[in-house]
Amino acid sequence: MLAVPSDGQVVCTGCAGVPSPLACPRCGQEDHPYGTLCARCTLADRAGALLTDPATGTVRPRLRPLLEHLVASPNPTAKIRWLAKSTLSTALLGQMAHGEAPVSHDAFRALPPSRQHDNLRHLLVSLEVLEPWEPHLDRFAAWLTAEIVPTVPTGQAKTVERFARWHVLRGMQRHAERGTLTQAVTTSARLRVRAAVELLTMLDSRGLTIETASQADLEDFITGTPGYDRATTISTFVAWADKSRTNTRLTTPWTPRSPPTVTVSDAQRWAHVERLLHDTAARTDVRLAGLLTLLFAQPLNRIVAMRTDQVHLTEHVTVTFASTPIQMPPLLDGLVRQHLEHRTQTSPPGHDAGWLFPGRQPGRHVVTEVFRRELVAIGIKPHENRKAALLHLAASMPAPILAELLGTTDKNAADWARLAARDWNSYLHHRAQTDAVKVGPSTQVSGLTASITRYP
């Protein structure tokens, strides 16, 4: 704080020898005036009182990282408001501090689901107070126990639990390990469990079980509701029954996989690219995510899980989607720099965890639906435009190179190459003949960059 001494020169209160009315009487800082004490000292007192065990007069070691995180916050006033308004979170923290609730995920599982509890849980995970937690898995298990098993006819519950826990839930866990466990995957898992329950309920009404069911029973179930694709939703349960030797006599109709289709023209895609490059009304992170989809055919569920170490800033900006860094074209490189600068300024410590697109919940990246919703709101359908980008890129380079650069599978790249009506067999022969020249992804990066710099 400035003061004006007798000679008229404006100097700070320290140089003027005048006590600052904004200085905290405890720490002497003027940064966060709040009340009798500054906001940081007030926060330290309130958080300390909340997390102190009255029996010992100390903070439990498991909760000390949380206390240090709160006190070190760059915005202590916001944390004071959080302590005042998040009554559910503070009540649970008080119970943990007093030894009335365990400092574990079990304490959260015993309570009704709430946004406050989820945010606190993510915060404790990000501070390594709790072990990593995947909310989709936890909620699926709770949903299965509370809402599904009680509705299953007597004698069929064990079959449902075996299928749901040892097959469906394990598949979700594999998705979680790959970072692809989205809300869509969870919804699909629940639909498959519900289909199994419907089939078992019908069999029970006939005095049958899955072990004694016949193909005729299955076909009656599939055709029982016109307009509802039961064959698709029940196919996983039937495949599990065969694999587990529960019933090997059942089969579902096989539907051949249709070839990929493109409903967005190249001109429309480039118009969307132009808009995302120059429309400053949209958020920077939404524009960047949309451009990575429209130009590099990256799916949103992979974009949201990108990390900052995949972006390299030198004279140029390069991004690594799979194993080979790709130089960003003009304008897009500036947008990447802009996003990184804004991210550094706005992400509080402990929230980003190295994510390129940190979410609101501590230690979590933004969810896919956030970007999808924002892009659709401005007239851009990410999935359809990604297919148009894949078609364009598949016509520009060999399928193996496309797979290596963009991180897609060889089969997917080959499917798109066939759709683009490009025959790259000669390329494979040429590559085999020129190993000494090292023809590979690095020789194609410039070609990829050139193929996406046709800004209108």
If you had to describe this structure to a student in words, what would you say it looks like?
The protein contains 22 helices and seven strands. It has helices spanning 13-16, 39-51, 64-71, 76-85, 87-97, 105-109, 115-126, 135-148, 157-178, 183-205, 215-222, 230-243, 266-278, 284-296, 300-303, 332-346, 368-377, 382-394, 399-406, 410-419, 425-433, 441-451; strands spanning 2-3, 11-12, 52-53, 58-59, 311-313, 317-320, 325-327. Helix 2 (39-51) runs antiparallel to helix 3, helix 8 (135-148) runs parallel beside helix 10 and helix 9 runs antiparallel to helix 10 (183-205). The longest helix has 23 residues, at 183-205.
Q: Topology, please?
A:
Blueprint: E1 2-3, E2 11-12, H1 13-16, H2 39-51, E3 52-53, E4 58-59, H3 64-71, H4 76-85, H5 87-97, H6 105-109, H7 115-126, H8 135-148, H9 157-178, H10 183-205, H11 215-222, H12 230-243, H13 266-278, H14 284-296, H15 300-303, E5 311-313, E6 317-320, E7 325-327, H16 332-346, H17 368-377, H18 382-394, H19 399-406, H20 410-419, H21 425-433, H22 441-451
Helix pairs in contact: 2-3, 2-4, 8-9, 8-10, 9-10, 10-12, 13-14, 14-16, 14-18, 19-20
